[in-house]
């Protein structure tokens, strides 16, 4: 079993990731939490935790971890501190502890943030974090979904390095994709976009290779 640190474990998508990892025979989730209440909630469900706040020092959080999923988000508040600087801190922590893979939940549009009106600051922050990860010594996968919905996932997506179209995707399917990319046979050092589609997640990842 590999220990997977879930950054953003208390968020809507993060909680789904933790549940998937908990059900997996390969991975053990470790939820990064900011306070005792969050810690108690996860530990009540037999999920390990580590204390860490992206606006503080997080260099200790990746100790004894094998892989990291970064699914934290500012929700539009404090974009630079969380989506950019927080992600960069976690990449540094992962590098320090020589983790095997860093999976980044990014966003469609992060490749060209200047083209967005409303989300320019957010996408710029995601872009900077993605570029920092690419230049790091880490093995990584960067996943850029379209607009997130809360509809029930069907395990099917449309995936390409560049989709050239807008679209939505359920948080369920995003969480499944992120967890699938943890596997050793999943694409490494790749960046790709996903929206709802007709191809099973595993097959879509195979096709990318």
TrEMBL record:
Looking at the record, the residues that make up the Semialdehyde dehydrogenase NAD-binding domain are 3-116
Q: Which Pfam families match?
A: NAD_binding_10 (PF13460)
Q: Which top-level group of life is the source organism from?
A: Bacteria
Molecular-function annotations in GO: NAD binding; oxidoreductase activity, acting on the aldehyde or oxo group of donors, NAD or NADP as acceptor
InterPro entries from the UniProt entry: NAD(P)-bd_dom, NAD(P)-bd_dom_sf, Semialdehyde_DH_NAD-bd
**Which PANTHER family does the UniProt record give?**
FLAVIN REDUCTASE-RELATED, UPF0659 PROTEIN YMR090W
- For this entry, the protein name equals Uncharacterized conserved protein YbjT, contains NAD(P)-binding and DUF2867 domains
Q: Which organism is it from?
A: Algibacter pectinivorans
């Amino acid at each position: 079993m590999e220990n997977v640190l879930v950054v953003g474990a208390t968020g809507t998508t993060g909680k789904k990731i933790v549940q998937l990892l908990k059900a997996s025979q390969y991975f053990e989730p470790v939820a990064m939490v900011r306070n005792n209440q969050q810690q108690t909630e996860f530990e009540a469900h037999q999920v390990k935790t580590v204390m860490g706040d992206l606006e503080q020092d997080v260099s200790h959080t990746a100790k004894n971890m094998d892989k990291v999923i970064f699914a934290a988000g500012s929700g539009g508040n404090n974009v630079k501190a969380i989506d950019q600087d927080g992600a960069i801190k976690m990449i540094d922590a992962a590098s320090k502890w020589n983790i095997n893979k860093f999976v980044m939940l990014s966003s469609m549009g992060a490749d060209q943030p200047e083209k967005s009106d409303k989300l320019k600051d957010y996408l710029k922050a995601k872009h900077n974090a993605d570029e920092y990860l690419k230049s790091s010594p880490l093995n990584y996968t960067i996943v850029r979904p379209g607009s997130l919905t809360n509809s029930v996932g069907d395990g099917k997506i449309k995936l390409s390095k560049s989709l050239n179209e807008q679209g939505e995707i359920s948080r369920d399917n995003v969480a499944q994709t992120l967890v699938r990319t943890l596997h050793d046979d999943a694409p490494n050092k790749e960046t790709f976009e996903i929206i709802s589609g007709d191809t099973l997640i595993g097959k879509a990842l195979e096709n990318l290779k």
